Amino acid sequence: MAVKVKLAGVLRALALGKEYVELNGVTTVRDVIHGLKSINEKLFRRVFDSARGELAPDIYIAVNDVDIRLLKGLDTPIKDGDEVLILAYIHGG
């Protein structure tokens, strides 16, 4: 199963500037997040807080333009052809 993952903003730099990456064999958003390790371990660590077992607090994820918080969170099912958007909120001061 191929899923297209769009990396927005600062996350692209951790994927060698790629806006889109494809991941195979994923069935949930959690699988997508862990699949980021195959792209770049730093990308995975930027998105997922392993110590807490959850997304970093400034990360937003949508599946087919729907916020995963309105779905099943990290357990949101993914199917072939879905698009997952991952972005980091911009902080101001």
Sketch the major β-sheet. Answer: 5 strands, mixed
Sheet with most strands: strand arrangement:
2-1-7-5-6
β-strand percent reads 25-35%
For the record, give the distance between the C-alpha atoms at the N and C termini, rounded to a whole number.
Answer: 42 Å
Concise synopsis of the structure shown:
The chain is α+β, with helices and mostly antiparallel strands and about 90 residues long. It has two helices and seven strands, in the order ββααβββββ.
Describe the structure.
- The protein has 93 residues and is of the alpha+beta class.
- It has a single domain (2-88), classed as Beta-grasp domain (Ubiquitin-like (UB roll)), CATH 3.10.20.30.
- It has 2 helices and 7 strands.
- The strands form 2 sheets. It has a 5-stranded mixed beta sheet, covered by helices on one side. A two-stranded antiparallel ribbon has the order 3-4.
- Strand 5 (59-63) and strand 6 (66-67) form a beta hairpin.
- The longest helix is centred in the middle third of the chain and has 7 residues, at 29-35.
